[in-house]
Amino acid sequence: MFSISTRAPLSSIPTSDAVPTSYHRAADERKYQMDIDEEYGEGSSGELGAAGKNIVGPGESITSSKDYMRGHGTYVEDEQVVSSVAGTIERVNKLISVKPLKSRYTPEVGDLVIGRIVEVGSSRWKVDANARQDAVLMLSSVNLPGGVQRRKVEQDALKMREFLAEGDLLVAEVQAFFGDGAMSLHTRSLKYGKLRNGLLQPLPPHLIRRLKSHFHHLPPPCGPTGVDVILGLNGWVWVSAGTKAAVEGDGQGQGVGGGAEGDGFGAEGVYSNVNDEITPESRTAISTIASLIRLFAKYHIPLSDSLLLEGYQWISKRRGGAESTMISDEDGERLIGDVLGVDVSVDA
Amino acid sequence: MASSSRLEILNDGGLRHDARRPYELRSMSFHLSPHPTADGSATVTQGLTTVSVSVFGPREPRQRSSSSHDRAVIAVEVGVAPWAGTGAQRRARGDKRLAEVGASIRQTFEPVVMTHLYPRSELFINVQVVSADGGILPTAINATTLALVDAGIAMLDYISSVSIGLHLTQPLLDLSAPEEMDLPVLVVASLPNSGKITLAQMETRLHVDRFEEMLVLGVEACKVLKTEMEEYVKERTGKVVQRMSLAVEGAKGLQAGFIDGGR
């Protein structure tokens, strides 16, 4: 995906070659090794914050454990705080931790996640949310058809598979944690619930930042009804056909269920398994957005809705009509260059 | 392929059949994250041997029975591509030799990966041998180290591995397939910072007087390998960190421009 060619002057020649040239050291590159060492500093121990980048790898000692406390991503050996992952050093007063470049999603209460039902149990669902352990969705933490105030009865526990069956996707919020570290989810809001009318695009979780809103509506030039994007903090992104509710709410994150019209709940649409009619133009827009998301992920660029819009405008200008929803490597490089002003032609 | 009995291990000039000196390693190349959906992945090429490793997890164990309440369990699966050129016969997935390679990799990493940080979960390591020319196990171990680093999984240290052969009294480093067939082979995996050994494996007999020399040489070679891996990992990490921060600044500017232009 992302590989590093040499640091030699050669690297300024753009390689439009689709085959990534991986790092391969020849004898004459020895002389460039020197400045690498200076830049990332073997001697970052002791002098924290001084070395420009503060990048360490596993097994590298950072500082003395007498003066500092060890945080995540470190361990103590021979009175030294030693890194256990490759990443950047982060220091809060006397606490040293190392944040790995990428890692599995670590949930926090209030996070918005997208998950997939893997098991239906006794008054609970097991949900795969791309975390270390499966999440739990209790029957008591969902809204059932009939309104928020509706009481759950024994019959509901028997009909659980009618609401959410194995393989169904849903958007939910992290409610709490169990003693063993597994997370408990809830969908007690109109924003949350079963997902349909779209496609799932998994990404490395570190590319999704915590934002004010994780529901985005890309307005109509992007497909006839626009495209809705839900950025799950666990790295899963849901791209779906824009809904009326979302248009009216101006992307304030209304009505994921798609059936949320007027009265909001009541409709059986919330747990429906049937997609709405999606026009070919809408489908094209959805998969183009998904291609864009993959493109940004390929170059380690954190996602945002404005980035997607800008990218979509670029790509539709370039194409004129709708042909393919795939983005070629050259187009991708140019798009990133034009939209973000970052030259990526050197790294692939 | 030349019949193994006719292969000259060291010629009069003291060079091996591929013109390497006895202590010379084959050329290496690393590639991090070739697999977009795995949690971490790496491809390592040493000479004509290429191994690709993908790490999935820590994740919910696929079989409930294999989970442990206080640590992560490591599962390794090894596959060989049909075109890899291991020999005439095709290896099925359940092959005994491959299972053994998998077990060696698991045993190598179990004491070094900090599994207690990931209780009730599973680390699944998939090893694919893309092309084989000797030293499958050491290359796979090196690739697994890089894949675990890529996945952000906590480890005590890098693990690097190398094979050492013995020709008469001369130890040879990093054997290719023809050499591997003719010589006794020792595979060493070690933690380069401390010099600790996590794997020393031998399938043939060897004079005990030579063993220590080979082991010491192997640990030394592991340090060299680690330097290479570390340099690559750091350079890449630095670039990605830079890219992520650059992109954030870019997006901020963009957002401002978008709002000004749009409204």
UniProtKB/TrEMBL annotation, chain A:
Domain Exosome complex component N-terminal: 55-92
Positions of the K Homology domain: 200-244
Annotated compartments: Cytoplasm; Nucleus, Nucleolus
Regions that span the bilayer: none
Compositionally biased region (Polar residues): 1-19
Quaternary context: Component of the RNA exosome core complex (Exo-9), composed of EXOSC1, EXOSC2, EXOSC3, EXOSC4, EXOSC5, EXOSC6, EXOSC7, EXOSC8 and EXOSC9; within the complex interacts with EXOSC4 and EXOSC7. The catalytically inactive RNA exosome core complex (Exo-9) associates with the catalytic subunit EXOSC10/RRP6. Exo-9 may associate with DIS3 to form the nucleolar exosome complex, or DIS3L to form the cytoplasmic exosome complex. Exo-9 is formed by a hexameric base ring consisting of the heterodimers EXOSC4-EXOSC9, EXOSC5-EXOSC8 and EXOSC6-EXOSC7, and a cap ring consisting of EXOSC1, EXOSC2 and EXOSC3.
Protein name: Exosome complex component RRP4
TrEMBL record, chain B:
Cellular component per GO, a single term: nucleolus
Family: Belongs to the RNase PH family.
Record localization: Cytoplasm; Nucleus, Nucleolus
PANTHER family per record: EXOSOME COMPLEX COMPONENT, EXOSOME COMPLEX COMPONENT RRP41
Domain Exoribonuclease phosphorolytic, first and last residues per copy: 24-153, 157-220
CDD domains referenced in this protein's UniProt entry, alphabetically: RNase_PH_RRP41
Molecular function via GO: RNA binding
Protein name: Ribosomal RNA-processing protein 41
Subunit structure and binding partners: Component of the RNA exosome complex. Specifically part of the catalytically inactive RNA exosome core complex (Exo-9) which may associate with the catalytic subunits RRP6 and DIS3 in cytoplasmic- and nuclear-specific RNA exosome complex forms. Exo-9 is formed by a hexameric base ring of RNase PH domain-containing subunits and a cap ring consisting of CSL4, RRP4 and RRP40.
Assigned keywords, A-Z: Cytoplasm, Exosome, Ribonucleoprotein, Ribosomal protein
Key word Ribonucleoprotein present: yes
Organism of provenance: Dioszegia hungarica
GO BP annotations, alphabetical order: nuclear mRNA surveillance; poly(A)-dependent snoRNA 3'-end processing; rRNA catabolic process; U4 snRNA 3'-end processing
Keyword Ribosomal protein (UniProt): yes
